[in-house]
Design a protein that fits this description.
Layout: H1 2-5, E1 10-12, E2 17-21, E3 24-29, E4 35-37, E5 44-46, E6 49-56, E7 59-66, E8 75-83, E9 86-93, E10 101-108, E11 111-118, E12 125-133, E13 136-142, E14 149-155, E15 162-170, E16 177-187
Antiparallel strand pairs: 1-6, 2-3, 3-16, 4-5, 6-15, 7-12, 7-16, 8-9, 8-15, 9-10, 10-11, 12-13, 13-14
């Protein structure tokens, strides 16, 4: 199913390594990579890895990620991006090794915000869904692929009509990070 859905996708910032395994596409993020804009930490990073395609108008994006080993600061999930100052990402965030959390970050006109939801320690897989209607976005997550919980609603006033949307990963810490993109689906 994954191969059928990725024919129009391209990389923004090539990752360390990509290969196909039985479960999907194994993606290795380079160390010291991130998507972040200025807030609190007073730095901007735009060197994370995004596997995406251009989409015009409204859509629903669903991504399934598995992560057998979690590294400190590791991230993987979904992203919708207009440019380096206007985007949203949601997915695994691990402040310490083996402590999974769901992080949702938006960059709005060059300033990032951040919200976190604790995930069960045994969590090794997550389903993420993003709906776009105009400049409004809603994000849900699920641990079983059936029961989705809304975690965020936001408005991005400077988002373009045509944006890139897909799966992202980054590893702000000192180690590379691997995860498996099991599925990606976009409904327009």
């Amino acid at each position: 199913m994954l191969l059928e859905n990725i024919k129009d996708f391209n990389w923004y910032n090539d990752p360390q390594n990509v290969r196909f395994v039985e479960e999907g596409m194994l993606i290795e993020a380079k160390a010291h990579t991130d998507f972040w804009q200025n807030s609190d930490c007073n730095f901007a990073k735009d060197d994370g890895h995004l596997f995406a395609k251009s989409i015009e108008g409204d859509f629903i994006l669903t991504v399934v990620c598995s992560f057998p080993g979690i590294k400190a600061n590791a991230q993987c999930g979904l992203m919708a991006r207009s440019d380096k100052q206007n985007w949203i990402k949601a997915g695994l965030y691990s402040p310490q090794a083996d402590i999974p959390q769901l992080g949702v970050v938006s960059a709005n006109q060059g300033s990032s915000d951040w919200s976190i939801v604790d995930l069960p320690p045994e969590c090794k897989q997550i389903w993420l869904r993003l709906r776009r209607r105009g400049k409004d976005f809603i994000i849900w997550y699920s641990l079983d692929g059936e029961n989705f919980r809304q975690v965020r609603m936001l408005h991005l006033p400077k988002i373009d009509n045509i944006i890139s949307a897909g799966a992202f990963t980054c590893s702000p810490g000192n180690e590379n990070f691997e995860f498996i993109l099991q599925n990606i689906d976009i409904q327009t």
